[in-house]
Amino acid sequence: MAFVRLTGVTYYEPESAHDSYIVFTGADSVTRLIDMHGAVHHEWSCAGVPPRILDPALTGRLGDIGVQLSLSGDPRGGIYANGTVGQLTWDGERVWEWGTQAPGGAARQNHDWELLANGNHLLLVTIPRVVPQLGSTVVGDQGLYEVAPDGSIVWEWRAGDHLDELGFSEAGWDALRETVARDPDDAWGYLEINSAKTLGPNRWHRADPDSVFQPDNILISSRKANVVALIDKASGSIVWKLGPYFDAEAGAQHQRINAHKVPRPLDQISGQHNPHLIADGLPGAGNILVFDNQGGAGYPPAALGIYAGSRVLEIDPTTRQIVWQYTAEDSGLPSWTFFSSFVSNAQRLTNGNTLITEGMTGRLFQVTPQGDVVWEYVSPYEGRGVAGEPEVHEPRVPGVDRLSDTPLVYRAQAVPAEWVPLEPHPDLAAVDLRTTVRPTT
Are the C-beta atoms of 143 and 125 separated by less than 8 Å? Predict the structure, then answer.
């Protein structure tokens, strides 16, 4: 019997959904721009980690995109895999490329990057080196480079220089060192930092110019350590953080009992992705939006519930309280119907809705502030990989990390129509694609 998977747009309420284009890289390593019907309007034969259509105010052109341009050939794969990254025009012309001039001859960019207002690029990179607190073996440390248009590195930050600032307990240090000793060549790095984003102009800084929320400070996320941290750009120090530990009484059962109550203190995050400050002009501006995977993570491992389910959380950074959330239960569904133990992200939209990437299943969907799903798309683009890693890298543990078919989407971006050189698309509100079955995974 053939397995049938429903793909494309499976649910759509035009009167409630925010209309935009959406860009993402499919598991086939092709980046596509789709509309709310799922129709492909443009594609690039490059993957993005993540792909991002750029604000024309920064580039002077419509439709420029940042993507991965070549692989490094490093057999370790993962965070070592990226050879060069760059910026393409809508027509695919390379207007900037970086990597061969990087230390070691490869960009090793992974998980995130940003085009800054000054024209430089902020890149999350891997830096193979010895971190003394973790032993004498070379490990995959991660860090940040700010790279000028001419390819020179004008600012650098390395995670291994700031481990004391992450708040590990004695048991945490023991677990971290044991993990590194067991697999110093871990393809995803001992911290697996999965995002890096400058705060940008924000209300906290306007209210207190001396606060830690300086616009050029950088918010990062360590998936394996369960830490969201704010880097002071001037000093390099971590000046604010969430995690790695939370009140033991606020464990998984506490989260389920109190999940409907907001505001409430932030409880255990685990394996989180893409924390960022909601930008000025959007509902919730100044709060942190984060996809809390609730996937296994932590030094030592965090206690998680039996009924696996991910969460999208909006957090007031000054009170550290959850002020809005989305779980499957907020749509009247069992918690496990919304779950991605790794990858994924969320993006606040101008009408107050939130675009969510449930990356493990290739599901993109939009929810209202009340938790109603008003648009859902399931990627039809599958590829072969090892837990989401492209097929070009062989399994690291034969017989355990086996190649499999996957629809995985790392991160999607809602793109305003005015950012791309396309004719205005048809009035989508004239078409109602509502299904008779509520969308589920």
Answer: yes
DSSP three-state, residue 238: strand
Per-residue buried b or exposed e for 79-97, using 16+ beta carbons within 10 Å of the residue's own CB:
bbbbbbbbbbebeeeeebb
**Within 10 A of 389 (CB to CB), how many other CB atoms are there?**
21
Per-residue pLDDT, 236: 98
Whole-angstrom distance, CA of residue 105 vs CA of residue 100: 4
Helix (H) or strand (E) holding 182: helix 170-182
| Predicted model pTM | 0.93
d(CA 66, CA 98): 11
Contacts of 382 (CB under 8 A, 6+ apart): 26, 27, 28, 405, 406, 407
Helix or strand run (H / E) with residue 177: helix 170-182
**What is the domain partition of the chain in residue ranges?**
54-191
pLDDT one-digit tens code per residue, 363-393? 999 999 999 999 999 999 999 876 545 444 4
Please list the ranges in the chain whose pLDDT falls under 70: 1-3, 248-259, 386-402, 425-441
Three-class secondary structure assignment of 123-143: EEEEEEEECHHHCCCEEEEEE
